[in-house]
Amino acid sequence: MKQAVLIGIGGGSGSGKTTIAHALQKNQGSNLLIIEQDSYYKNHPALSYAERCLLNYDHPNAFDSELLFQQLSMLVNGQAIEKPVYNFNLHLREKFTERLEPHPIVVLEGILVLENPKIRELMDIKVFVDTDDDVRVLRRLKRDIRERGRTLDSVIMQYLGTVKPMHHTFTEPTKKFADIIIPEGGENQVAIDILNSKLELIVRNYL
User: Fold this and answer.
1) What is the pLDDT of residues 154-163, one digit of tens each?
2) Is 205 within a domain?
3) 104: domain CATH number?
4) Which pLDDT does position 42 carry in this prediction?
5) pTM of this structure
6) pLDDT above 90 (res 143)
7) Which of 71, 77, 125, 180 has CB 3.0 to 4.6 Å from 7, enough for a Cys bridge?
8) pLDDT band for position 207 (50/70/90)?
9) CA–CA separation, 68 and 40 (whole Å)
10) b/e string for 113-143 if b means 16 or more Cβ within 10 A?
């Protein structure tokens, strides 16, 4: 029997996935561990910084899904992992890793967490956060400029060049795999309460 419950929270960039993950963590406390899919971007140390800036980070091939699958499998079976640490300013993995101990509940959040069939199969609850495109792009602008050292022009160029088309090609279609669709992300307190109730029921049955 699995030793942890795995929840996948997918949706477009800026949809509110992280807000929902932290809302669940607030309710579940130290029982819950959050894993960001972004930590598993493939590493490209042989490329120059300028070349790395041009990579498409919103395509499924941008992620090391095999490593993510392996480490999620370890966590749900009660084993610790050495999670990669990604530097968004340099578009590179750090040389060090972060040791994560097993938790009763693991939340995986990211734009394409529902895209990979092997990873979906591990999940007990699959969530898609559905938020208007205009709201998402404004949230992304704020985040990337404040937290990731990007310029306004670079964020807009990336959004129009890859983020928007990749969302409609790859992320939006994963909505069909979701057990729960949450409109308006972290603003939807009713949906968060329902998800917390369902999570508590599953945890009682598992653990």
Assistant:
1) 777 777 777 7
2) no
3) 3.40.50.300
4) 97
5) 0.88
6) no
7) 125
8) low
9) 7
10) bbbbeebbebbbbbbbbbbeeebbbebbbeb
The enclosing H or E element of 158 equals helix 152-158
String of b and e for 81-112 (b: at least 16 CB within 10 Å)? bebbebeeeebbbeeeeeebebbbbbbbbbbb
Burial class of residue 187 (count of CB atoms within 10 Å of its CB; 0-12, 13-18, 19+): middle
pLDDT tens profile 84-122:
999 998 999 999 999 999 999 999 999 999 999 999 999
Which residues partner with 41 through β-bridges? Answer: 63
Token pair of 49, please? 């910084």
Round to whole Å and give the CA distance between 95 and 85.
Answer: 8
Helices and strands: H and E segment counts in the chain = 8, 7
Is 1 in contact with 121 (CB distance < 8 Å)?
A: no
49 vs 44: CA distance, rounded Å: 9
Domain count of the chain?
1
Give percent of the chain above pLDDT 90.
60
Q: What is the mean pLDDT of residues 75-86?
A: 97
The verdict on residue 206 lying in a domain is: no
**Phi, psi (5° rounding) for residue 181?**
-110, 125
List the structure tokens of 177. Answer: 């795999």
Give the residue, 134 or 128, on which the prediction is more confident: 128
Residue 188 has a pLDDT of: 85
Using an 8 Å Cβ cutoff, are 182 and 130 in contact?
Answer: yes
Nearest-angstrom CA–CA distance, 111 and 14:
9
